[in-house]
Specification:
Length: about 170
């Protein structure tokens, strides 16, 4: 049985340890090496995670399997979106699991945990963006009940965007 704990301010090295290889596995081939490296430096370095964890609006939950940290999720409560009529919705901004732990049902448990967490704050649903070429992730979110409701161009750098699905799960 996995353990899921809210990340603390001092957990930024742990998030980097999970985030870097997970991001590379999912998105490392989505742009040139230079673009990917620039995006990772800005968003997946220890300094970036330290900044993220100092903002109480960023809610990170870390997933432990057999006491080893293997994944995490980041959510933002009350993150309205113009394509969603409900005012109280949560954004699932990041969900990462180390590749060697795929297929164990851990990602489902992490998403379900975050859904239940969001419901405690009277959220009406959860939305996310997912790169359209990440077929495994798109299929996973559909299996979890999310529906594609639009499109979004995700900015990696000032001159590189990746096409994403905008997906929503109403609670």
């Amino acid at each position: 049985m996995p353990t899921i704990l809210r990340a603390q301010k001092e957990d930024y090295p742990l998030l980097t340890q999970i985030g870097v290889p997970s991001f590379l596995a999912a998105h490392g081939h989505s742009a040139t090496k230079e673009v990917v490296e620039a995006f990772m430096k800005a968003n997946y370095s220890e300094a970036a995670f330290e900044r993220e964890l100092s903002n109480d609006q960023n809610i990170y939950h870390v997933l432990f399997h057999e006491q080893a940290p293997v994944g995490y999720a980041k959510i933002l409560l009350n993150a309205t979106h113009p394509d969603i009529a409900q005012p109280n919705v949560t954004k699932l901004e990041r969900l990462y699991l180390l590749k060697e732990y795929f297929g164990l049902g851990l990602a489902q448990q992490l998403v379900q945990f975050n859904i239940e967490y969001a419901r405690q704050f009277d959220q009406a649903g959860m939305w996310l963006h997912v790169w359209i070429e990440n077929k495994r992730a798109v299929a996973f979110y559909k299996k979890m009940g999310f529906k594609v409701i639009g499109a979004y161009d995700f900015k990696l750098t000032d001159d590189h965007y990746n096409p994403n699905h905008h997906m929503y799960l109403e609670f």
